[in-house]
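To the wet lab folks,

You asked to see what we're planning to order before we commit. Fair enough. Below is the target structure as tokens, and below that is the sequence we designed to fit it. If anything looks off to you, flag it before the synthesis order goes out.
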């Protein structure tokens, strides 16, 4: 009995050390990705546009219209992370380990994914739409430091009441019972608190769009911002 317990203890310790070394290797690999490739990007002919707006503001629809007219490349950090995880790369293993622990992906990793995506499409793209990023002031500062200065920020602005009504309607049509009015209001409150700090950093680059209007009327506002930019 004692020998059996002793063997189990030894096996448990071996497994612990194996898991420890595997986790350490993954984390070190993650650090390698986070610290590589930091040179700024020249965007004099490839404008970078941050597309910001609360949930329900309609920025997704407007991004589609911008892509269709201007040929800009649409980049979403969520899409990039999901694609990287599916790739099975060493970095994917790092990201999977982080997510399985319930932790947030380090911003440096997100920035590397954005930068790599921009570089990969730099030749054919006419510009870049960074959708829903940055979400915090520190992310905006880091983006401009490690990638490139933002050319213009398009902010789709709508009242909390309007966004709440849109999200409640969307939740009802999609059957998402978890998206009730209380959770929606909490999401909007968190967004607005962080977003206000982001916008305060760039008073000269913000272009506010009235997102309470019709889709076509909103896009007319967008064109007034982008037409001169593209022409220049």
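Sequence we intend to order:
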């Amino acid at each position: 009995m004692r020998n059996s317990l002793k063997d189990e203890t030894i096996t448990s310790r071996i497994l612990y050390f194996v898991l420890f070394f595997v986790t350490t290797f993954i984390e070190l690999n993650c650090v390698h990705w986070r610290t590589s490739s930091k040179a700024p990007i020249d965007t004099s002919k490839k404008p970078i546009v941050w597309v910001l707006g609360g949930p329900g503001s309609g920025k997704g629809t407007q991004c589609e219209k911008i892509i269709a007219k201007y040929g800009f490349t649409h980049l979403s950090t969520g899409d990039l992370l999901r694609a990287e995880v599916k790739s099975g790369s060493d970095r994917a293993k790092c990201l999977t380990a982080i997510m399985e622990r319930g932790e947030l992906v380090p911003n440096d990793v997100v920035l590397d994914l954005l930068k790599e995506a921009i570089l990969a499409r730099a030749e054919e793209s006419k510009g870049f739409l960074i959708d829903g990023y940055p979400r915090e002031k520190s992310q905006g500062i880091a983006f401009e430091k490690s990638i490139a200065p933002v050319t213009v920020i398009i902010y789709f602005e709508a009242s909390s009441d309007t966004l709440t009504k849109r999200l409640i309607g969307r939740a009802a049509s999609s059957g998402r019972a978890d998206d009730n009015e209380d959770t929606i209001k909490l999401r909007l409150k968190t967004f607005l608190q962080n977003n206000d700090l982001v916008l305060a950093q760039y008073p000269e680059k913000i272009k506010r769009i009235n997102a309470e209007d019709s889709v076509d009327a909103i896009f007319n506002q967008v064109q007034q911002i982008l037409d001169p930019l593209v022409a220049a």
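Structural context that might help your review: Residues 37 and 176 are 41 Å apart (CA to CA). Confidence is low (pLDDT under 50) at residues 9-28, 31-39.

Thanks,
Computational group
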